[in-house]
Design brief:
two-stranded antiparallel sheet, 4 strands
Length: about 140
């Protein structure tokens, strides 16, 4: 059975239920409509008018994208760990380990293409000409 397309009114209702703090301008940009049209739809629907008051600081968790009511970046310590410590595999011995995001970004900016778990793997990999900085 083919699915029918949602009407504009239904799409606005769906967006409002998903994120009640979204403004009509943001909603219009995502739906490809003008903000005035969105306001008309919201004004005609009684249930959409009564949105909760917007908190002063609204942000979303950088990992799981849940709504936070403070300036924090993460909802809990698990999300913080997932964001700052990335699981990678050693380029020489292929053992998985965690490396800080900043260290990975720094080595990428310096031109290194491989990541090693220890100094001994790094030395063995360089001896075999696995990793050299790529200078263009």
């Amino acid at each position: 059975m083919p699915r029918r397309k949602l009407t504009t009114r239904e799409r606005v209702r769906k967006f409002r239920k998903k994120d009640p703090f979204m403004s009509s301008i943001e909603m219009g940009k995502r739906l490809g409509l003008g903000s005035r049209g969105i306001r008309r739809i919201i004004a005609s629907e009684d249930e959409l008018i009564n949105k909760p008051p917007r908190p002063k600081h609204v942000s979303y968790c950088l990992v799981c994208n849940t709504l936070l009511d403070t300036i924090r970046k993460f909802c809990d310590s698990g999300c913080r760990f997932k964001y700052y410590r990335i699981k990678v595999n050693c380029s020489y011995c292929h053992i998985p380990f965690y490396r800080l995001r900043g260290q990975i970004m720094l080595s990428y900016r310096r031109g290194y293409t491989n990541i090693y778990c220890s100094y001994s793997c790094r030395d063995k990999g360089r001896r075999n000409r696995v990793d050299t900085p790529s200078r263009l």
